[in-house]
TrEMBL record:
Record bears the keyword Transmembrane helix: yes
Signal sequence interval, chain numbering: none
Origin species: Halomicrobium zhouii
Full protein name: Uncharacterized conserved protein, DUF58 family, contains vWF domain
Keyword field: Membrane, Transmembrane, Transmembrane helix
Ranges for domain DUF58: 436-576
Pfam families: DUF58 (PF01882), DUF7269 (PF23933)
TM annotation in the entry: 7-28, 34-54, 254-283
Amino acid sequence: MNVDEILKRLIVGIGLLFVVVGVALIAVPDPFPFGAEVIFAAGVAALLAAALTVRGRLQGEITETVMPDPERPADNQRPGDEVDRMLYEMTELRQGVAENSEHLEERMDRLGVAIVQDREDCSVAEARTVLESGDWTDDPDAAAFFQGERTEADEAGFTGLVQGGDDGGFETEFRAAVEALLDYGEIEVDPIETEEPPSRFERIFGRSGDDDADAGVETNWNEADSSIPDFDTNGPLEDVSLHHTNRWLGVTAFGLFAVGVGVVTFSPALMMAGTVGIAYTIYGRVSAVPRVESLAVERELEADDPQPGDEVAVTVTVRNEGDSILPDLRLVDAVPDAFVVTDGVPRLHTALRPGSSATFSYVARVERGEYRWPVVCVSRDFSGGAERTSLLTPETELTCVPSLKVTNDVPVRAQTTQYSGDVNTQKGGSGLEFHSVRDYLPGDPMNRINWKQVARTGDLATIDFRQERAATVTLLFDTRQRAYVASEPGKPHAVDSAVHAASDVFGALFDQGNLVGIAAFDTVPCWYDAGAGSEHREHARMLFAQHPALSPRPPDRQDTEGGYIDPMTHVLRRLSSNSQIFLFTPLADDYAMEVASRLDSKGHLVTVLSPDVTNDQTVGQRLTRAERTARVRNLRQRGIRVIDWNPDDKLRLQIDRAKARWA
């Protein structure tokens, strides 16, 4: 038992004592055999207890359960947030000036070289010469950023930053250089809105407490916003905590003070007034908190078999099946953090008499996986002085597995395997499209004999058609932390968009007769060999829904000893030499581009499908959009196919445009 608990019990005991004393003084003129000195000492003790109670109230806090906030979607990192964070640290916090400026200069140098090379078709050295000359832009600040010597304004800016003054140069030149490169590279962006967000600090740091730019995704809202440490439960009912809220500590201090003053001044009326406050405190301490074993919870889902991204209406009903009233119930449906509440409120505050019930409803956008989640229940007595926190888990489960529906034909390139399919080869044989006519060989099918030539010349000849063979295709996902980025809070991040698109691509390739496999590169290995057949298809559906590497939430990082391990290591070890690659990546950094280039250099036919989740309303967002555009152009210049699509649009429309461009 700790000191605080002993003190609280001592205060309750003193309060009980003085309630008796107050009643005795009012009922009997001289109820005690001892003198006034003892009564005066008791009054001083009451005042001391009141002071200790006030001290405890000021140093402590009301310990009510902090309920989760499922209405707020998980705040995924946005492309460019790390750049805005660096600028904020440099200009507002006066921190990391040298390190951040060096990092930003390196990124701008790579971007500037890439854009000049794309436009001027020149070498890296020639591109740097163009940048340093300043002839590529009319903005002197933008030109100064890439020139070898710092301007006086820039030097003053660094000095001011280090000494705590205003930024006079670096940020100005940096912003100007970003805008000039966007213009020079003909990269489309919208104007930045003139209305600034209410707080720059909130925009950069209020979204996540993690200063690690590579963290990618904020911890889930359950752990971040709630005092309940864990929402995993195996049973229908689990008691999490039972504790006093300290709500009546202030009333206790007042009561003890009034009693103490009343005793010291021999004022029965003041003592009785103090005993009222103490009586409330005693009630709050000794009253039992209603248990919730008798509370039945049912959850009803509008859809039995939803698809990833569907909106599902959820109705939760609670019923008091016990014999006693539940005077204060606070309920929150702990919606899985992969879901996004789009309508309604998944919470309820009510009281339930025996046999009564209450209902609340909301709509959530669901994601792939199997889910069974609890309802957080906080039950209090009438006084609110104590509360019991429990997890009530209904039997309802939600399973969300992609259907692998076929929305459009997906183009694959000529490649020969032992399976027939939809890919045309340069070899003659059985098929549909005419290839050539050759001399008849014993055993040739009768339906392939060229009877017109037999009638004309009398010589037997056989018609060969262009053979069709199945392609071996691997759907490869970039599931690193850097890939879990979204354009705005509440919108699907790039991995979700990629998996949604890939489930349709898998269905299309599979129905075309190709052998399709699945892989992902990150610290969590994911590999599913290319194959065919209904069993292979069903296993792929479940992998899309359940594999941790393709989770709607990023898997936990695995600590590795011995330094850096290339995320592509396990993929390259198992990838067959004749497999085509459909690479799903937001191209959030140069590594994703290097993966595509490396696979292409090894002889694989690579098609990159890249969801564009960039935005353009901050300088960091505009920089990352320019970097991503440069990567797309670089891959296309190398002959690698890239389907660049906005997740808000239908992928099949972009595939149709790409097929027309590749024809």
